[in-house]
C-alpha cells in the first residue's frame, strides 16, 4: 500500500525534508504534488530514522510547507531503453528532447547500475584509433579503458571531444568495428555549446551512431548529478545486451563535481578539500568504474571523461581524485594553445597506463613501443635544453643541443599539431615520429636497437629544409 504524506518539515535550496516517513529507501523516486496541482519528481538522498531528505529535480520554488503532497514510488530512477536510442538526444534525465517522439522501450533499467565483480572483468587489450597522433601514438586509448582529458577554461576540449567522437574506431583487426557506438553526455553546458555538439555530429554523419544526453547550464543542478548515470546506463545496455563497443564521453566533470558540492552544502555536510564533500572520491569512482569489459560478453565500455581544471591547477581535488581512479590522463596545455597548436596536448604529463598491453605487433605496429619511448625521451631532453638556453642564450648551445631545439619545434608543429578534420591512421602517426627522429644524430637515439635504426631511421641532411 502506497502512503501519501501531506506537508514538508523544511525546504532548503533544491531539497525538502519530510518527517514521519516509513519504509523509504535510499535513491527511491518520489512524486511531489504542489497546492496548485503541479507535479514534480524527486529522489531520496538521505534517511535518518523517520526523516527523509529529498532532492527535487525541478526545484523547490512554490513548494508549500503545509499543502504539498508526497508519494514514494518504491523504486529508484529508471530510464527506458531499446536499440532505437541510437541517434536520439535526451535531457539529463533520459527524456527525449529531439522532437522525434518517445522511446518505445524493451526494458527499464535503474540508472545507478550494478557493481561489476572484478573477477568477471576482462583485461583491456585492443587499440581504439582516434585519428589524433598525440593520443594514438603516445597516450594510446585501449578498449575498456577510462582515460580522462584534463583541460582548462578556454581550451579547445569541446572541439577535441567532437573530433574523437567523429573519428574513433577499433583497430584490433585492422578495420573499424561496425558495432561501434558513442554515448555523449554534456553537463552544465551553455546553449551555444550544446548546439555546437548537435550540429557537429549531424554534419559529420555520425549522429545515427551517437546517443546524446544534454544537461544545460540553466537546467536544475540536481539533474546534473543524474546525467552521467543515465548515459552510463544506456552504454551498459548497448554493450552488454547488444554486444556493442561503446565509447562514453562525459563533459564537463567539473560541472558535475560542483553540483555535488552545492547539494552537499544544502544538506549541511562538513566540507573537505576546497568545499567538496569527503565522499567525492567514492562518488567519482561509482561513475568511472562502470567502464570495462566482461568475460561473458562481447561488448565493452570505454570512457573519456573531460574536466576543466580550475586555474589550470592539476593538483585541484577534481583532477587529483580522477587521476587516482582512472588509468592515465591526456593533459591540454595553455602555452601550446597560445602558440596556435591544436590539439594543445602536452605529452610529458600525459600517459596511458594500459597502452603497453595494447600496442606493438598484432595490435598497432611492431615498432610502436620503441618509437614512443624514444619520442618521450627526446622531448624530455628538449625541455632541459630550453632551460639551459634560457640561462646562456640559444646561440651558445652546442650543435647537438641546437638540433634538440629544432626537434622540439618540429615535434610540436608536425606531430602534436593537426587540423580538426585530419584523421591520421596509426601508421601515418608512427611514420611522422620516425621522420622527426631523423633530425637527431643516431648516437642520441639510445632507446632504439641498432636493428630498428637500420630499418627505419632516416637521418636528415645538413641542408635540410
From TrEMBL:
Domain ATP synthase A/B type C-terminal: 357-454
ATPase F1/V1/A1 complex alpha/beta subunit N-terminal domain span: 9-67
A single GO BP: proton motive force-driven plasma membrane ATP synthesis
CDD domains: ATP-synt_V_A-type_beta_C, ATP-synt_V_A-type_beta_N, V_A-ATPase_B
Keyword Ribosomal protein part of the UniProt annotation: no
InterPro entries given in the database record: ATP-synt_VA_C, ATPase_F1/V1/A1_a/bsu_N, ATPase_F1/V1/A1_a/bsu_nucl-bd, P-loop_NTPase, V-ATPase_su_B/beta
Keyword vocabulary terms for this entry: ATP synthesis, Hydrogen ion transport, Ion transport, Transport
Function: Produces ATP from ADP in the presence of a proton gradient across the membrane. The V-type beta chain is a regulatory subunit.
Similarity comment: family membership: Belongs to the ATPase alpha/beta chains family.
Protein name: V-type ATP synthase beta chain
Species of origin: Anaerotalea alkaliphila
Gene designation per UniProt: atpB
Amino acid at each position: 500500500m502506497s502512503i501519501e504524506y501531506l506537508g514538508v518539515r523544511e525546504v532548503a535550496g533544491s531539497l525538502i525534508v519530510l518527517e514521519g516517513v516509513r519504509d523509504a529507501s535510499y535513491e527511491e523516486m518520489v512524486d511531489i504534488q504542489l497546492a496548485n496541482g503541479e507535479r514534480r519528481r524527486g529522489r531520496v538522498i538521505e534517511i535518518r530514522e523517520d526523516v527523509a531528505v529529498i532532492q527535487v529535480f525541478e526545484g523547490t520554488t512554490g513548494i508549500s510547507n503545509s499543502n504539498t503532497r508526497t508519494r514514494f514510488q518504491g523504486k529508484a530512477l529508471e530510464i527506458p531503453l531499446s536499440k532505437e536510442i541510437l541517434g536520439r538526444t535526451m535531457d539529463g534525465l533520459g527524456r527525449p528532447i529531439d522532437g522525434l517522439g518517445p522511446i518505445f522501450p524493451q526494458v527499464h533499467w535503474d540508472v545507478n547500475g550494478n557493481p561489476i565483480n572484478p573477477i568477471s572483468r576482462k583485461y583491456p587489450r585492443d587499440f581504439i584509433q582516434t585519428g589524433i597522433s598525440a593520443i594514438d601514438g603516445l597516450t594510446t586509448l585501449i578498449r575498456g579503458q577510462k582515460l580522462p582529458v584534463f583541460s582548462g577554461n578556454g581550451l579547445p576540449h569541446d572541439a577535441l571531444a567532437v573530433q574523437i567522437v567523429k573519428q574513433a574506431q577499433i583497430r584490433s583487426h585492422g578495420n573499424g568495428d561496425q558495432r561501434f557506438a558513442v554515448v555523449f553526455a554534456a553537463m552544465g553546458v551553455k546553449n551555444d555549446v550544446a548546439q555546437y555538439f548537435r550540429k557537429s555530429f549531424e554534419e559529420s554523419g555520425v549522429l545515427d551512431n551517437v546517443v546524446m544526453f544534454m544537461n544545460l547550464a540553466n537546467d536544475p543542478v540536481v539533474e546534473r548529478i543524474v546525467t552521467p548515470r543515465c548515459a552510463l546506463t544506456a552504454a551498459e545496455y548497448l554493450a552488454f545486451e547488444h554486444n556493442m563497443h561503446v565509447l562514453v564521453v562525459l563533459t564537463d566533470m567539473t560541472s558535475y563535481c560542483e553540483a555535488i558540492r552545492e547539494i552537499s552544502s544544502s544538506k549541511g555536510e562538513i566540507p573537505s578539500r576546497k568545499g567538496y564533500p569527503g565522499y567525492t572520491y567514492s562518488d567519482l569512482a561509482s561513475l568511472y568504474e562502470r567502464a570495462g569489459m566482461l568475460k561473458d560478453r562481447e561488448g565493452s565500455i570505454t570512457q573519456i571523461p573531460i574536466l576543466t581544471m580550475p586555474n589550470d591547477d592539476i593538483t585541484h581535488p577534481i583532477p587529483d581524485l580522477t587521476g587516482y581512479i582512472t588509468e592515465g590522463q591526456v593533459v591540454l596545455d595553455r602555452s601550446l594553445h597560445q602558440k596556435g597548436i591544436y590539439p594543445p596536448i602536452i605529452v610529458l604529463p600525459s600517459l596511458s597506463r594500459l597502452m603497453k598491453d595494447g600496442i606493438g605487433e598484432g595490435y598497432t605496429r611492431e615498432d610502436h613501443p620503441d618509437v614512443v619511448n624514444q619520442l618521450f625521451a627526446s622531448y624530455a631532453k628538449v625541455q632541459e635544453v630550453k632551460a639551459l638556453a634560457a640561462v646562456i642564450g640559444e646561440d651558445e648551445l652546442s650543435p647537438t643541443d641546437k638540433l634538440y631545439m629544432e626537434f622540439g619545434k618540429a615535434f610540436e608543429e608536425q606531430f602534436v599539431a593537426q587540423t580538426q578534420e585530419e584523421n591520421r591512421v596509426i601508421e601515418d602517426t608512427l611514420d611522422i615520429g620516425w621522420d622527426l627522429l631523423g633530425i637527431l644524430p643516431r648516437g642520441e637515439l639510445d632507446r632504439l636497437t641498432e636493428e630498428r635504426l637500420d630499418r627505419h631511421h632516416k637521418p636528415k641532411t645538413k641542408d635540410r629544409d
